[in-house]
């Protein structure tokens, strides 16, 4: 398997007045193409900070982050935006759907930025919404859908550009247990079918059981990494 994400000696320090707060300390990590990784930790552990660094939403205080041979911490903002547009899809806990747009319009947003024409955008968005079980919700706006349905729209939006990497920050955080299971099965099956690398942040051990590799984050450091063959014993 080829390495698609590599993190070397990464630390993140936030300044609050004269005080320095260490959010991450000397993180070293590599991720292979087509695998599912879970960043597991409690609130304040640093797991979401690490995801933000991987996505280029924040820059590390020190260290290197390489994605597909691009040193993303060195890219300018316009370069980063284009890199994310071409290579990364996002799924958020709060869905982040535009309330005035329909499900189909929300899903097609990434293709709009890529310059895809309206007819093809609509065709792809409708097809993907049917694939996630929302074929009867194409013209519905977020306020007309349940939380689980909104998250399915968010998933379709993340996958529509066929990015090589999907980042998901607590994607089941606002969902009940049954809906969480449905959402996780949907995300994992879609990523596996397209050989995409999936990186999910969660505090929920049940969600981590879907991953190929679980990266335990504690107090800003990697506590341990457990692969799928060992995982059941470690989590029981």
What would you note in describing this structure?
This protein is of the alpha/beta class. The protein has a single domain, classed as Rossmann fold. Helices cover 36% and strands 30% of the residues. It has nine helices and ten strands. Strands 6-7-8-3-9-10 form a six-stranded mixed β-sheet, sandwiched between helices. It has a four-stranded antiparallel β-sheet with strand order 2-1-4-5, covered by helices on one side. A hairpin with a 2-residue loop joins strand 4 (62-67) and strand 5 (70-71). Helix 6 runs parallel beside helix 7 (177-193). The longest helix has 17 residues, at 177-193. The protein is globular. The two termini are 29 Å apart.
What radius of gyration results from the CA coordinates? 18 Å
CATH class: Alpha Beta
pLDDT below 50 for ≥5 consecutive residues: which ranges? 231-236
Category from helices, strands and their pairing: alpha/beta
**Mean of all residue-level pLDDT scores:** 91
* Quaternary organisation of the protein chains: single chain
Total helix count?
9
Q: Given the C-alpha coordinates, what overall shape results?
A: globular
Domain ABC transporter: 5-235
Organism: Alkaliphilus serpentinus
Family: Belongs to the ABC transporter superfamily.
Keywords: ATP-binding, Nucleotide-binding, Transport
